[in-house]
């Protein structure tokens, strides 16, 4: 386990390394943004906790890899604003509309600082578990080669069906049609 402090924001991030990383072999990694409600409280209204659990299992199954736990709650708007967004969603807004009504962009997360974390671990190329094209673009822009994008489609349930459709339709998340229906 390695801790990092993001200089620009003071946020503390975590890298959980499982197994031995081979500098010649791109490790399986997950950039996972903190989601208290999904990760720790088992909320079914998002897919975060389900993805976190599957990502850790995939890393164990692969024999090695890294889970980066990034302190970017609520797509970067923070926990209190995320709760406010939940109330707007309860009144009919989707996840993007809720953030925008609160005066934020649909997704405020930044992945630029991940370059330093990856560099510290001597990682130059990765197998990235994600459905989010912004993560792919951010790593490529930071000079990290992505040898494979590994889909992470977990947690579809009646409580987050519209949330997942919004992620696909408005944020460009790459889901199989059978996953989001």
Automatic annotation (TrEMBL):
It catalyses: GTP + 4 H2O = 2,5-diamino-6-hydroxy-4-(5-phosphoribosylamino)-pyrimidine + formate + 2 phosphate + 3 H(+). GTP binds at residues 30-34, 51, 73-75, 95, 130, 135. The keyword Iron does not apply. GO terms for cellular component: cytosol. Binds 1 zinc ion per subunit. Keywords: GTP-binding, Hydrolase, Metal-binding, Nucleotide-binding, Riboflavin biosynthesis, Zinc. Its EC number is 3.5.4.25. Its cofactor is Zn(2+). GO terms for biological process: riboflavin biosynthetic process. The active site is at 107 (proton acceptor), 109 (nucleophile). GO terms for molecular function: GTP binding; GTP cyclohydrolase II activity; zinc ion binding. Zn(2+) binds at residues 35, 46, 48. CDD domains: GTP_cyclohydro2. Belongs to the GTP cyclohydrolase II family. Catalyzes the conversion of GTP to 2,5-diamino-6-ribosylamino-4(3H)-pyrimidinone 5'-phosphate (DARP), formate and pyrophosphate. This is GTP cyclohydrolase-2. It comes from Photobacterium jeanii.
